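Deliverable D4.2, example record:
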Amino acid sequence: MLLTILLLLFVRSPWGQGIIVDKATKYLAGKTNTTLSIGRLFVTFQGNLYLDDFYVEDLQGDTLVYSDNLELGFGLMEFVKAGTIHINKFEWEGLKAKISRAEGQKDFNYQFLIDAFAGDVEEADQGKEEVESAESSPDPIQIKLSPIRFRDFDLSYLDSEGGTEAILRFKEFMVDVQHLDLEAFEFDVRALKLQQSQISYKQLKPIESEEEASDDGLIPLLLSVEKLTLDQVMLDYENQVDQQFANLSIDFFELSLPELDLQDQKVLLKSIDLKNSKIAFADFGTKAPSDDAKQETSTPFEWPYWDIEIGYIDLEDNQITYKTQDIDAIPGFFNPENMQFEGLNFNVSNVLLKHKEAKLALRTFNFRESSGFELKGLEVNLDVDDQRLIINDIVVETNSSKLQTNLKLAYQSFADFITQPESAKLDLRLKSLKADVRDAYFFQPDLAKDEVIQNLALFPILANGSIIGNLTSLAIPNLQGSWGSSRFVARGSVKNVLDVDQLIFDFPKLELSSDAKTITKFIEEDLIAAYQLPEKFNVSADAKGKLNNLQASMNLVSDLGEIDFKGKYRDLSEIVFEVALGVKDFQLGTLLKDPRLDTLTFTVEAQGIGASLENLNATLKSDFQRLKFDGNDYSGLQLEGVMKDGVGELMLGLESEYLDFELLTKLTLDTVDYHVDLLLDLKGADFFALGLTPEQVRGRLVFNALFDGNPEAFDLSTSLKDAIVVFNQRNYPLGNLDIQAKVREEETNFELRSLLLNGKMAANTSPEKLVASLTSYLRTYIDKEEAIEDLSDQEVTMELDFKLNQAPILNQVLLPGLEKLDTARLVVDFDVSNAKLLANLDFPYMKYGEIEIDSLGMRVNADRDDLNLAFGFLKLESGPLSMDRTYFTGELEDSRLFFDFNAFDGDQRMVHVASDIGLMGDTLSIHIDPEDLLLNKREWGIPMDNEVLIAENYLHFKNLRFFRNNQELLIRDDLDDVAEEHVALEFRDFRLETFTSLFNPDELIAGGLLNGKLVVENPFGAIGILANLKVQDLKALDVGLGNLSMEAVAANLGEYQLKLALKDGGIDLDLAGDFVADETGGEFDLDIAINRVEMKLLADLSKGEIRNADGYISGKVNASGNTNEPNYNGELVFNEAEFVVAQLNARYMLPKEVLKVDNAGLSLNQFTIRDENGQKFIIDGKILTEDFTNPKFDLKLKANGFRAVNSSREDNDLFYGTAILDADVTIRGDLNLPRVTADLSVKDGTNFNVIIPETQLDLVKRDGTVIFVNRQDPYDILTRQTDEMLNTFTGYDVRSVLKVDPNAVFKIIVDERSGDNLSVSGEANLNLEINPNGRITLSGTYELSKGHYEMSLYNLVNRRFEIAPGSTIAWNGDPMDANMNISAIYNVRTPSAELMASQLSGTSADARLQYQQELPFQVYLNVGGEILKPEISFRLDMPEDQRGAMGGNVYSRVSQINEQEDELNKQVFSLLVLNRFFPSTGSDGSGGGTAAIARNSVSQVLSGQLNALSSSVFGNTGLELDFDLDSFTDYQSGSAQDRTQLNVNARKRFFDDRLIVQVGSQMDVEGSSQNPEQANAVLGNISLEYVLTENGRYRVRAFRKNQFESIIDGQLIVTGFGLIFNREFNRFYELWRGVDLSENGTNPIDKLQNGEAKKENQNEKSQDKKELDVLRKEENED
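Output generated by the structure prediction step:
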């Protein structure tokens, strides 16, 4: 006992504790061979342990474990008595441990401790096993842990071999476990707290996986945590193997979990709080590909057998980051691979899952994502069980959108709802919806670039409504929506939503209202400019049925009109449709911005039934109550159709004032083929009135077309009959237009017969295969990879022959500028199997306006071995372009096509280039032969190995260098100082006219001496320019412009700086700026400084249109932006500029005037033009050029006494004189419809002369006086009389006032040769209006104060009529419907004896002699009535002081004659022609000559009408009939005899128009011939004419004629023979020039084809050498 007491005292005493610690330390140190120390160790018998300053080193001398202070309270007695483990106190402070294992080692640094005690442990374990085997299993050990506190721990684990690193540091860790049963897995944790901790884990190498036995059963865990707190805990996770990284910074986390029972599946969670924390996770590992083949088998839904209750979960102001790609966040783009949520708040409470019921109340959920997307709030109350789902108070709010709604669902069971959602009953109450599409930009940024979406984002979409029912039958009692000012309302029902085929809907109410401002936001700008939408519109509609059985109606009401639509459609066993469309007072012209269109009112009804096209029965009816276009009324247009069993007719017709037609189309429909028979009967059309032609053109025709088949195989035939065009009161037959076409897989035939074009084409294959075969055939000649033998099995043939002829309808109506067109012909013969291709194109001559082409031709001759080509022309002129004989030939040799190009100046060869072309795969090879290379009449050289390679996006130039003496041009793509792909042109003393002279050898188009280079970078991409180019003595149109220099350098990649200057001529100009290349459109910024442009230079360029110019123009312009959308801004300044417009001979001066120009247009601010007297013409306003094709005007023009014309007869062929004007003009509108308001005054000093051209004069003289009318149908469009219009202006809106000063003189020279002229002066005040449709109205009066009319009669006498003052012309609307009251006086002095002859009969000679005295007489020419139907009358008078002469007898006789119209006309005619009176009837024994004159005039008119009739009857039969009706007085019998003869001539051509036979005769209609042998001979006239040459130049003729030779000889028979030479020439020497091949019917291109080109080239080369010897003397001038 004493020993025990002493032992206890020893152990408890500090001295004893020291000895024990010292012994233990030495033992352990010796056992482990390492340093080990214990500062203090104290053990009590109650089970308490105190350990201070415990230290252990590893074998490397590093700290393995260090513990500062450890205090343990263990219930030793409790453990001994009851076996309960009760740790009543455990406080450990300052623990530091380092566990490590180096790379390549097996053991950790603590292994030496295990090895040191391994033997003792094994013995102890063996003894323990023996004891345990002898004992029975005890009861589970009860464990109770009172508060355990760890402070200032620093633990590290470094396993380099395993690739794992872990660090754990914390300030404090406390755990209080009330109950712990490890066997039952029961844990009752009162408190657990971790504070100020840092946890780090790294996985650097893969971990070897160990398969563990799977246990599907749940762990019997029973856990209760009263309070778990994490305070300022940091966790870093890095898995470099799987590229997964995590970082947690938990500021505050608290968990209260009263119960977690996995065995009974029960969770009772009181609360979770997480505040001010940051959680980041990144998974950059490679994602395993999904195995689509594996499909998860779906299992029926079962409610989870869990009992879960959650008090609340509250997340406050947290930050969560999730990444799957290591990329930066992009503002404005929500990237699911990089999501960063900030300010995340989440609060959910009352969460319940129990007994097939679930509930939750989400109070708060909001966050901000790094993209800018923000969830401002999400609130919802959820209550769901096995029979219903209720979601109330749903509120979702994002950046700009918000949703508030309630949702209820009822179902049999939740499992049924998942499998059969359509059976669930739905009750959706949409309280409000505000949807802003800008929120979608975060998820699809490209939407922001879409103009439609941008406009949609201007306003949010607002909606509310309700939906009740189920997916089988949904009712929509009310659904309303709005966007901006637009509103939408719907009410109806929908059934079978999930089955589209069985979808049934019924919407009795569908309403939409909107306006133009809304609609224009979704329409392209060009459409907005083209249409004027209604300001407001409302649409009411209803629809019901199914997609294959539909009934709907719609009504649209707007300020433009109303549209009604009703329709039915059923597609069950057969198709049934019924449509009714009604348009009422719809302003179509306003909608389309076309003033020609008027208000539209019509109805269309269509019905049909049928199972297919073959048995379709349908009808179509229409009623066009109001239809107007361009001022013409088409109301009454008929559109009707009927179809039965797929066969029907469609009729379209109209009978109106200007259009009368019927179009009947017969249809036979089939699913494969169909038949169409179209018959158009155009009875009459006034194309001018219809707005289709600018001049009076009318026509009629009958057109028929038949089509059988389908687009791949069909037969087509057309015919045109009775086609006539009336133009300028002349008939132009169109002839026939017959087309026969047959297209099959095995053949293609086409034949065309018409007045203008005739020909046929035949092939033994389809058009598609023909084109493919022809392409492949031509490719074989130049592509070495393809052989002609590869096509021999195709057996494709084709023959083609077409001719183009000139006809009056072409050059007089359709193309009035076409002066001449010789017959053109194209002939092609193609046979693949025989490798044959022959093609001839002849275009002998054409002159159209300024364009003249002479003898253009092409020849292609190809066989199995050769391919020969030839193309050329004798002359080509168009404006400054003037080319003489030019041609090229081609021959095939060794799969290369050799070309020879020649151009001539007269007989002198100017250009000769020989080249050859080949094809290698997809690359084209071009080579130029250096032999006889001739440019601008001079020899040039080029290396023999030159070559150009061309392919898709590829160009290569090899040794392409043209040189002559010191001139050189290089084209290359291998510059050393250019890194990008490029094409470069290098010039060395190169003359520009070397090339430009080809287009006009007589007049210099452009010239100058070039030096430097021009480089185009990236020719197939973002094109850039590099340049160092100079042009010395630059000329245009033979006018010197100065010296041009251009520099372009690359500042950076794709960025260029440009400089251009034009100096030392009449122009001083600088351009500088930069350019950025881009494939979609380069960016540029250029400054153009126009320092000086001499007006004299502009006058020289005008080629005489401007003369006597002085001063200069200057200015600055900046151009920038994109090449697709350039911006420019600048101004042009006229400095002391003056010039004379040649044709007006008026000098205009601009001292200091400015024109401003920008993208908006041209601005003129008081732009003033002065005449030579200093009077001003001011232009103020703008010309807007936003649309260059249709600029807008906002201009004001003012002038005061401005001399607009000051010319003489030599200056102009149409007018001359002086014109002085006052003007006040406003111009608005655009180019399509200018709106002009003008106030014009013609001032004193005006003396203006207008000359009627001789061509117009001749037309006037040919006008007949007989008008033929259609008595049967006076209103026939073709034959009715139309109002003549001198001028027609369409597309103008003019309102003007015209005033004329009484002293202004106007003179119209009718005929310069005869001297006929009209001169007037007077006062006028007129209102002139021109409507957009061309209607001209004129009102006002022109009162003539003086004037005269001079005329010549038959070039025998000249007479002058003086216009009486007070004569007037008054207009009341129609310019051609003026009322005239004009009197003109002709004064004549003549004896009155002839006038008084009847009264003087039987008087004395003395009495008759006194009447031989000359007296003054006045002949009045009175013009009254309407201007188109003038009433012309004459009146004779005498001056008042002479009326008493001869006792008043003469005046009495004059007054008597004025009452006798026939006698008056006779006397007036005699006075005007003979200056004396005509003897009265019986005075000389004759009846006078007026009847004969009248008879002759009528006979000429009848002759013309008979000829027109014969042309219409015989058409193109080849038989020509000429009629000539001659009425005259015959005196051969000794007395006057009235005779009328009808001359009839018939003409026919034979032998391809080479032989012309003409026979004719004269037939007496009135009177008889005095020679019986000549009377009515059947073949009185015979003519035989033979054309010796095809061009008709040489002819021979034999003839016999019966003709009236002279008064003396009378009627004779003349027989003769003649040789005729006919030639046209422009220059006199051409008359004696030799006959060209083109003039004998052979195109000059034929001699090239016949092999004569080489011989000609040799002769030309010989001639060229002689000429070159002369030119070499001029080398110094180069």
